[in-house]
Amino acid sequence: MVLSDTTRSFVIQCKPMYNALLHTHSSLRYLVLLLLVIVTVKSLLGWLHAQAFSKMDDRLSLGLLIVTHLQFLAGLFLYFTSPFVQFSETTMKDHTTRYWTVEHGFMMVIAIALITVARVTHKKLTTDVGKHKRLFILNAIALLLIVITILYSGRGLLGGFGA
Fold this sequence. Notes:
By secondary structure, the chain is mainly α. Helix content is 75%, strand content 0%. The protein has one domain (16-152). Helix 2 packs antiparallel against helix 3 and helix 4 runs antiparallel to helix 5 (128-152). The longest helix is centred in the first third of the chain and has 34 residues, at 15-48.
């Protein structure tokens, strides 16, 4: 992997901040996955059993949205400072470079959009079953995308820090 002098200098200057954000991003994924599983399962049960949409359901959905957007901000900074993200003629030929430059970010933005749309649009629905159904469907698709994307990286679902 060849870095320009400017990029190398920037990465060295930002290394403590970069490492802190990398660890934050790597750690937040567990919280995102945990909340996403909880919201998805709770929504499925609420939908199937026609349960009332409670304040706890709303708060869990809001918590998922907040944590997901924090994860996005950390990832966005990492995207523009990571030595693994490269724009060159070999980007699409190398699996690792292509994954970090194109695939990871693209799939995660779609998942974040689904989580956001689920949160925003469920509030416009009038029935509790409709709210649970909306949250379940969109969050389940987001969860599937996230799991597939993480597994595709080769790190495993519960990979370590900095992976």
